[in-house]
Amino acid sequence: MPISASDLQDAAAIPAGVAICDRTHWGRIRVSDSDRIRFLHNQSTNDFQSLQPGQGCDTVMVSSTARTIDLVTAYILEDAVLLLTSPNRRQSLFQWLDKYIFFADKVVLKDVTEETSTFSLIGAKSNAIVEHLGAGSIIGKPYGDHLQIDGVIVAVGSGLAEPGYTLILPTAQKEQLWQKILTLGAVELSDRAWETLRILQGRPAPDSELTDDYNPLEVGLWQTISFNKGCYIGQETIARLNTYKGVKQYLWGIRLNAPVEVGSAIAIGDEKVGKLTSYTETTDGHFGLGYIRSKAGGVGLKVQVGETEGEVVEIPFVSHEYPE
Predict the structure, then answer these.
(1) How many other β-carbons are positioned within 10 Å of the β-carbon of residue 182?
(2) Model pTM greater than 0.90?
(3) Distance between alpha carbon 284 and the CA centroid of its chain, in Å?
């Protein structure tokens, strides 16, 4: 089904205003007991042991060969860690984490998706709404920092490469808070408009950019990876790729001249150099995400995607720079 004109307009208007998007269908897993930090530190790419309650981070769950499973946001609470997972990953991720809990580990997993809700506030004017909600002290804090107001977690970061906040709350409070935020001037953003923004900004999604075919360095998720934390699942492969600059392909945005099917080959002349992983229509035309061999080039590269011409552009959610 094509995206509607109103969805496109809402997505395009976000930078100047504020939108609210219901992300309740995303997964939420609560990790508790005394070994929770050590456990998560050993199961994903970021450095949990450097975090304190009230802080948070993005991290990638990877396989033993460093293939991506999911991009997860973690919030460190006083007595637990709350993981915000992708919509179609919570059950498999819960099972994956559970299999690494051994007899002596003091770790308890609980899927709290059904009893909680998640909103994103997105856009430059989201600060005003957070102020109205009584969480003004969080404004200007680093990504992932959060506080609780009347049972609602208010965290810095919209989930996209736009300023904003993520709210996690008991489901019983959902309708009242949703209506309050709308009365404060937020525009409702549909799931389809979120998907358009996700693609335009390059946020990778499971089954599209996050699959068994790709590792976090190829995706460009440098901000989620600690190269100094020691061993974790997939660490050896990621460290080797970084040390020897062995990343063979990168995720890029592609401005397209016409609609194109996801999965189409990306080529330069007769040579296939990659594959399209996502596509959306936009107010300015057509846009996709795709992996392209690093030797082929980057920004400004002219490519053929299926039967369509395209040009490679940067996407703000990811980076292809090696850390200093």
Answers:
(1) 12
(2) yes
(3) 24
